[in-house]
Amino acid sequence: MKELNKPNICQMTELILQDTISGNLSKEQQIEIQEHIIICETCRLQQAKLKADIDNWRESSYQTKAFTIADILENSRKKKLRTKRQLTTATLFAAASLGFGIAIGVALDPSKPSATVYEAFADDYSLSLSSDEVFPVDFFNE
Amino acid sequence: MNQEKAFIQALKNKEEEAFNQLIAMYQPLLSRVIFKIVSDKDETQDLVQEVFIQVWESIAFFKEESSLKTWIYRLGINKALSYLKKKDIRMAISFHTWFSEKKPTEGLSSSNESTLSDIFRNEDHNAISAALKLLPAQQRAAFVLSKQEGLSNPEIATVLNTSISAVESLVFRAKQRLVKELLPYYQNKIS
Ligand SMILES: [Zn+2]
């Protein structure tokens, strides 16, 4: 980019891109490009830049840190425990909110003559959620 | 029993040594492919490990209808694509998207909102990888498998679990979209 300072409005740019990226031009079109880049410096530089960008992209890679199967099974076990804890907290919170909502609903129910907010809370709406069995842990793995 | 069969049997027997050998063999391939699709180093690190956990957990179900390498490619691509899908869903419902004036651009599987110049300005200075971020996830995967990994269309079809004609269409559309997105850049309209 830096080496091409003037704007390039050559009509051949698109064809050069088609050729380099798609590679499905006709023989005639390929010859047209070859003849053109001999006389057009901008397109010549551009084609070189495009090829360099593609090579850079191909070669640029990220290598993850080394690990063994024992490492990743341990990581996975820790992650599952964390998920389980988060899930338990979320579920208990949801259950508490639900219980609260139902209690308020009952307390404000006009069909229930002598109910007060306190009496409504006294009703047993608590859901017995034993923490670990709410969902199988694998529920969140894919 | 040939060598690959014996190796797969060792994996099915959950022999740690065999798994460590598998990791040594396929970690570079998975890192390369997943990173090219998700464009995020930390996520790539996690996703590669998740693929090996999946191999550990599901090797018993590997029917050996394809080669081990193709199966590993498939698990890796699936991981990357499902990560992008979840990320898109998270982004769609995030407050950031609702309230921020500036749209997030990084790693979207198909970002109609962002442009090549956004990505170029903010995060990626290789035109090809910046433009790839604008492609829908499946097209991006097909392009990476074709151009980067040099897989044939029938091989890509096996990896993506789709037909050869679907792969041809994906690769064709990916290339067309790249040409369209890259044209202004190579015409010096984006810097
Ligand atoms: Zn020209």
Entry summary:
Chain A is mainly alpha-helical. In chain A, 61% of the residues lie in helices and 0% in strands. In chain A, helix 1 runs parallel beside helix 3 and helix 2 crosses helix 3.
Structure description:
The complex is a heterodimer of chains A (142) and B (191). With 142 residues, chain A is mostly helical. Chain A has 2 domains: 13-59, no CATH class; 86-142, no CATH class. Chain A is 61% helix and 0% strand. In chain A, helix 1 (13-22) runs parallel beside helix 3 (41-59) and helix 2 (27-39) crosses helix 3 (41-59). The longest helix of chain A has 39 residues, at 69-107. The radius of gyration of chain A is 34 Å and the shape is elongated. Chain A starts with 12 loop residues before the first helix and ends in a 20-residue tail after the last helix. Chain B is mainly α. Chain B has a domain at 1-92: Rna Polymerase Sigma Factor, Chain: A. Chain B has helices at 3-12, 16-38, 41-58, 68-93, 95-99, 116-122, 127-132, 137-148, 153-160, 164-186. In chain B, helix 4 (68-93) packs across helix 9 (153-160). Chain B starts with a helix and ends in a 5-residue tail after the last helix. The chains are: A mainly alpha (142), B mainly alpha (191). Chains A and B meet through helix 1, helix 3 and helix 4 of A and helix 2, helix 3, helix 7 and helix 10 of B. The complex binds zinc ion (ZN). Residues 10, 12, 36, 40, 42-43 of chain A line the site of zinc ion (ZN).
Supply the key terms.
heterodimer, A: 142 residues, mainly alpha, 5 helices, disordered N terminus, disordered C terminus, B: 191 residues, Rna Polymerase Sigma Factor, Chain: A, 10 helices, elongated, binds zinc ion
β-sheet strand percentage of chain A: under 5%
Q: How much β-strand is present in the residues of chain B?
A: under 5%
Q: How many β strands of chain A by DSSP? A: 0
Q: Uncertain spans of chain A, ≥5 residues at pLDDT below 50?
A: 1-5, 113-142
* Helix share, percent of chain A: 55-70%
CATH superfamily of the domain at 1-92 in chain B: RNA polymerase sigma factor, region 2, helix turn helix motif
DSSP summary: helix tally of chain A: 5
Gyration radius from CA atoms of chain A, angstroms: 34 Å
Q: Structural class per helix/strand content of chain B?
A: mainly alpha
Classify the helix fraction of chain B into a percent range.
over 70%
| Number of distinct beta strands of chain B | 0
Average pLDDT metric of chain B: 87
Shape of chain B: elongated
Oligomer: heterodimer
